[in-house]
Design a protein that fits this description.
With 653 residues, the chain is α+β, with helices and mostly antiparallel strands. The chain is 48% helix and 18% strand. Strands 15, 16, 17, 18 and 19 form a five-stranded antiparallel sheet that branches. A four-stranded antiparallel sheet has the order 4-3-6-5, with helices on both faces.
């Protein structure tokens, strides 16, 4: 989801539930005499009622204020002409195309494909294959030749010849020379659909029938079938790989020290809080969100995580492209339920060869939905123009195309001229069609042309046929304009108005304060005698690394140190730390003994503008917007029909 979609969603969350009702509507309010009706207000209020967290937005009086403010901004956008900007028009067109996809589905067939895909996702298959290349549009002679070659190889495999040897010697898949045809484990939606069908319909240890894909002919041998591994939850401790300027940092030594402390019985979660450099998880004891195969950007991390068998099992240190890790298995989760995966599976189906089934069903539905008629005389004249040059992509349209502007196809009241069909034929040359004779070619081309024109007509009339589609498009149209307006009037101004931002900071800087901070070295150990030795060394101004070198002997990590400037309340500081300069007394928290050496105490104080700029900019934007709505109410005339609004309130309550 991009920023614009997220922003617009905060105002009006699009839904495909049919909310429209056939009832009378009244004018709720006007802006410069432009009416806004009760049905739109009620529909959007009901749609968002259970989604908003702010109770003020559930209050109808407050919600009306928000709604009027929203419409005022939209009116301002139109007044500035933002609707004429090419980027806006292109994005609106792109969004409509995405939204329209939901109306091109066959629910029954889609559900069948979802269930099939889900059932297949329960298993992972390991297969080897042999490929004989042949183009989708190859001649009948070349196609038969490739089929015969594949058939001969399959017979040899069925007769007992080693499949791997056949793959490495005869497969035309370039990778077969190295992997002997072995594709590893895969599950549904990882391979083209015909290939997947063969994989899931061939028993383990057997060789498939010959299958055809867009790449050519294949035969498969099913080597293994295993249950899908599902998802897992793990915790980890990570020490980042050193940056170029951190030449003295040795991540491997640090992670090994931490691992030794775990082996000595110290708690994984406490060590993660103290030392893990993954700040998004360290405060939670290193716990990560659950994930499944292929969902992480690190294959090393994923492989190690799934190799852990028992809850609370801990891995040895290992390195990924990000740094060094130790993983602890928290929980294993079975594969998601069908309901949980339904939306994801529908998206995958739309990008897969499976979608051809849905397309065929839609074509049949539209042929029944609309009245259409072909002018056979015009079609015959157009067909004669197509020559054998088409097969070599050299065919050109006649120079005088005005002779072919007569209507070829009528869909309801829409007339489509012959020139449109000629343009379609011209573009189809790139597809490399080899259908012969020419009369059969033009018949096939017209069939495809008809289906495309029916879908175009259907798409053009979605707003007329589906009220929910029209509503969502209206909301997005206005929301997109509002985003552009906010960017122009508020967000860019807050970033570039340095004087205004500085004045706002001066007025609110007491709200942005540093807590007390300390420049400190913290030493920790589970052994009181060790921490006392660390205390003595700190009093002698011994460097932290030297302390570790002296006390961590015989391959045992007795003490860890952490140095830096930390704000009061930081996870890096012991909770009972005393803010006093110098080396502290030894104190205990839980199972750990601590000693601190505070070199500097920085009192509470104002943050500079640079130190809190992100938050100040955000607050300045909110301030500008608040005053902006008041200015818009002065710029535009708003009249609320209070009697109608009272009726709406009574009805909604």
């Amino acid at each position: 989801m991009n920023l614009k979609q997220f922003f617009i969603g905060l105002f009006f969350l699009a839904s495909f539930i049919g909310n429209a009702q056939n009832k009378s509507k009244e004018v709720l309010f006007t802006i410069n005499d432009k009416p806004y009706y009760t049905d739109e207000f009620e529909r959007i209020y009901k749609k968002n009622l259970d989604l908003v967290k702010d109770d003020t937005q559930k209050d109808l009086d407050q919600y009306l204020e928000l709604f009027i403010g929203y419409k005022l901004k939209v009116n301002k956008a139109y007044k500035l002409g933002l609707q004429n900007n090419a980027p806006y028009q292109n994005e609106l067109k792109s969004y409509r195309a995405q939204l329209a996809k939901n109306y091109f589905n066959d629910t029954k067939i889609t559900q069948e494909l979802v269930e099939e895909g889900y059932n297949r996702l329960q298993k992972e298959i390991r297969a080897s294959h042999i490929l004989i290349l042949v183009d989708e549009n190859a001649t009948a002679e070349d196609t038969l030749k490739a089929f015969k070659k594949t058939e001969d190889i399959r017979k040899r495999a069925l007769a007992g010849e080693d499949f791997e040897n056949l793959a490495s010697q005869l497969s035309e898949d370039p990778s077969a020379k190295d992997n002997k045809g072995d594709l590893g484990y895969f599950t549904a939606f990882r391979m083209v659909y015909p290939f997947e069908n063969a994989a899931y319909n061939t028993p383990r240890g057997e060789i498939s029938k010959i299958i055809r894909t867009r790449f050519g002919y294949h035969i498969l041998k099913i080597n293994d079938v295993r249950d899908n591994r599902g998802e897992i939850t793990v915790a980890h401790i990570m020490i980042l790989n050193p940056k170029p300027e951190e030449a003295e940092k040795d991540s491997k030594i640090t992670i090994n020290d931490i691992y030794k402390k775990i082996q000595q019985g110290e708690k994984f979660e406490e060590l993660a809080k103290q030392f893990s450099e993954d700040k998004s998880s360290s405060s939670k004891g290193g716990v990560l969100n659950r994930f499944g195969s292929g969902q992480l950007s690190s294959e090393e991390f994923e492989s190690m995580a799934f190799s852990l068998k028992n809850v609370n099992e801990i891995s040895a240190p290992f390195q990924s492209q990000f740094g060094w890790h130790i993983i602890k298995l928290i929980e294993k989760h079975p594969i998601k339920t069908l309901d949980e995966m339904k939306s994801e599976l529908e998206t995958k189906i739309g990008k897969d060869d499976r979608s051809k089934k849905i397309t065929a069903s839609l074509n049949e539905k539209l042929r029944k939905k609309y009245t259409y008629k072909r002018d056979n005389k015009q079609f015959a004249a157009l067909s004669k123009l197509v020559t054998n040059d088409f097969y070599e992509s050299k065919w050109t349209q006649p120079e005088n195309t005005k002779d072919y502007t007569a209507t070829l196809l009528t869909i309801n009241s829409k007339k489509i001229e012959g020139k449109t069909f000629l343009d379609f034929i011209d573009k189809q040359q790139k597809a490399g069609l080899k259908t012969k004779p020419l009369s059969k070619l033009t018949d096939d081309l017209y069939t495809t042309f008809l289906d495309e024109q029916l879908k175009t007509y259907y798409d053009e009339n979605l707003e007329n046929d589906f009220s929910d589609f029209a509503h969502v498009m209206e909301e997005y149209r206005d929301g997109l304009l509002l985003f552009d307006l906010m960017e122009k009037e508020i967000w860019d101004r807050a970033k570039t108005d340095t004087i205004g931002l500085k004045n706002f900071y001066d007025q609110h800087k007491m709200e942005h304060m540093w807590k007390r901070r300390v420049e400190v070295t913290v030493a920790s150990s589970t052994k009181e005698d060790i921490i006392k030795k660390a205390q003595a060394l700190l009093k002698k101004n011994t460097e932290p690394q030297a302390i570790k070198d002296k006390l961590n002997v015989n391959n045992i990590v007795n003490v860890m140190t952490n140095s830096g400037t930390f704000e009061e309340g930081s996870d890096a500081l012991p909770k009972t730390i005393k803010y006093k300069l110098g080396v502290s007394e030894v104190f205990k928290e839980g199972e750990y003994y601590f000693v601190t050496n505070i070199k500097k105490i920085i009192p509470e104080g104002e943050k500079t503008l640079e130190e809190c700029k992100g938050k100040i900019v955000n607050e300045y934007q909110q301030n500008l917007e608040q005053h902006w709505v008041d200015d818009l109410k002065k710029e535009f005339t708003v009249n609320i029909n209070t009697a109608v609004f009272e009726g709406v309130k009574n009805q909604l309550k």
